Structure prediction request, 662 residues.
Amino acid sequence: MAVPLVFAGVGEAISERAGVLNVGLEGMMLMGAFGAFAAAISVDSIWLGLLVGGLVGTATSLLMVGLCIRLNANQIVIGIAITLGAEGVTALLHSANYSDTYPRLPKAGVLDIPLLSKIPVLGEGLFSHHPSAYLAVLAVVAAWWVFKSTGIGLNIKAAGDQPHALAAAGGNPRSTRTMAVMTTGFLAGVGGAHIALIGAGLFVPAVTHGAGFIAIVLAMLARGRFGWIVTGAILIGISLSLTTAFQLVGVDVPIDAVQMLPFIMILVVLSAFGRDSYLPAALAVPYDPESR
Amino acid sequence: MTDVATPLGDEGFGSVDEHSKGLSQHAKGRMNSVLMAVLPVFAAVACGGILLALLGRDPVSFYSNVVDHGLLGSLGRQESLIRMAPLLLIAAGLMVAFPAGIWNLGTDGQFVVAGVVVAALGPELAPNVNGLVLFTVLFVVGFAVGAAWAVIPAVMKAWFGMNEIITTLMTIFLGVSFSSLLVKEFFDDPSTTVPQTKVLAVEDRLPRMFGSRVHIGLVVGLVAVLIVHYMMTRTAFGLRLRIVGMNPAAAEHAGMNMRSLTLSIFLLSSGFAGLAAAVEIAGVDGMVRAEWQAAFGFAVVPLVFLARFHGPSVVLFVAAFSSFSIGGESASRKADLPNYFVLVMVALMLIFLAISEFLQARSKNVVKDE
Prediction:
């Protein structure tokens, strides 16, 4: 559960730094999940499925690019539209193609990292995953590096904080934001694909189950610090798997209480440290070259 | 600065400069805005038809089934009217929050928690008090619980400037789990096998009107939307909220107490979501099951935008959405499709609304340049 959250959370963080609040994340994940599932079923390859998921996610994000960045439409409204539409379209396509057979994918194999995966308690959780999980780590490191030491990262931050200043300095806020949103779409698509292909092994309507919204929360909380996204994702992943663990051991802790824990923790952390919270100044503000 | 863009551009409620125009201009503007609301709907119906054809279904017979059941058939029409009640109340809450620039996206959480408390309280109270007292108590409790569920996001926004989109989204996840916990651990009816609250007896539910199955929750919803519309357009409080939405810095400069305004917007807005739940429980469901997830909120958000926060238009859009979703449910069953087509339609309408808004803004600029 943590892996797709990392993919989508990093993606959302990139959009947000560029000044685009992407509420359509859940929709992009769903579209990615369906595209990936269809691809993986027909060619029997998880890797190709993940790639197709990313591409379908990117294609979905073009809707946001066209409407919110080019036509300056309200980002929250379009984000909700993308999420609702994706939920509907994927459910319809699923019923049109798979409702008679309900195909499943074979269980994805895991890659045990020698020695490390044998560490008691932590080993299995951290070092025994489908190899694509390590791509998520790679995505985090790459995003961190881009923001820390490249001009692209600087451009993205400028597009989110002072788009007009970026334009005055010779940059192009619209194309910077476009690039950022398309990257988000790709990562969200891969995240959704991961849920369908590796987590569930099948596609059902709304298979992402609100993961996109949790990823939005994570990204906003992390405020650009990518390490925080990973920590938060692992925290939520652990508490979700705790519920099954408790059930297996037969400990009678109400599942619902366990599921509330990560959010309560987040709220406590927020009220203790979040007072000087920072979000990009031009977040969710369309960039219009003619205003100002 | 953690404020996101205000949902109201310079458009909603009829732009300010409308008053300085001549009468014919005014009428033309009215025509334009009607056209603006209707065009996206037609475009969406056309696109939806293409999608249906791609899926191998006959669009014409699908749409005629929608109209037959959702609007013309007496049973379906009653169902549509019943569906309207909670949607109208949630919409009333959003009509307070969005123009003020407060993004209360957590109505689904406020709805379920209030719903569970109302469902638990109803059957306990019902044998001891008469109908009027029962419904008053349930409505007040629903409103209060809904409002209480937004206190944390409200305080975090008002005092620490914490972005309410994150916090209200979190309160949905919290609310769904919390209400499930309440049902299973505290309010479970031991006589049933699935975890659920006791059932409010049918004769104790909201009274029905005109010999139909439509309960008076519909009237509550209509009145709420119209009162909120009046409040936002005709009272000083509403004006204040709109100023806060358009320019928070200016509002603060003008000496408005931002903290208490933010707090009251939040409590009012989420209170309406709680009231919506009370109406739905006391009018239709009578009980709540564990794992109950109402997803009314995300359907209403776009409707309120399509109507541009204008009360009577909100009623129209909610009515259209209700009969489309009731009719769509039946048409989907007949066409052997899952009941998701309505979502696609709402999404299409929002997208076309965005495009038509862009086109209108551009044509205005052209006029200015001449």
Summary: The mean pLDDT of chain B is 82. The CA atoms of residues 82 and 307 of chain B lie 21 Å apart.
